[in-house]
Amino acid sequence: MKKITTFIGALLLLSSGYAQTPNSVFLEVGGYTRIYSVNYARQIAQVGNRAFFFRGGLGFDGTEVSIPLAGTFTMNFSGHHLLLGAGATMVRRRKTEWTIAGSDTYIYYTTEVGYRFRLPGKPWFLGASLYPKFKTDPEPGNFLPNERKYLMSIGAHAGYSF
After folding, report:
1. How far apart are CA 114 and CA 102, in angstroms?
2. How far apart are alpha carbons 28 and 125 in whole angstroms?
3. Exposed, middle or buried by CB within 10 Å (0-12, 13-18, 19+), for 141?
4. 23: which DSSP letter?
5. pLDDT tens-digit profile of 76-109?
6. 0.90 exceeded by the pTM?
7. What band does 5 get if pLDDT is binned at 50, 70 and 90?
8. Within 10 A of 27 (CB to CB), how many other CB atoms are there?
9. How far is CA 120 from CA 80, 126, 137, in A?
10. Strands (E), 9-161
């Protein structure tokens, strides 16, 4: 976990010199996590109406903690944004009497196709996306998949850019 935190910190620090519109925070329902997550996105690069963001977040739902990490490519058309992204969500589930099979840790590999609306010059935005997912349930100490499952989810988000 310390290596992941160090990597994310270094990436955000190195990206600070390249971003023109640097930060966004947003709440996402569904999407990269099962229920909801609070996220931070950092713009890494921008060329014309195209930009690339790195995002990370934290989600809770009572029985599990999720950490989504992803890269998102956007194209802006006067406030209408096309979103294309890919990432991974690490999930740690609390063991309960309802847990029958599988481990308490699993990973979602996720892609994103979506839409975001943001009025030009305004900081608030709204969006929705479709998320095809590939779930792996690795055995303890082994990151090779033990179980594979394909899922599809939808998500909505609202946030603030600064």
Report:
1. 31
2. 12
3. exposed
4. E
5. 998 999 999 999 999 988 766 555 555 578 888 9
6. no
7. low
8. 14
9. 9, 13, 42
10. 23-30, 36-47, 50-60, 64-77, 80-93, 105-117, 124-138, 145-161
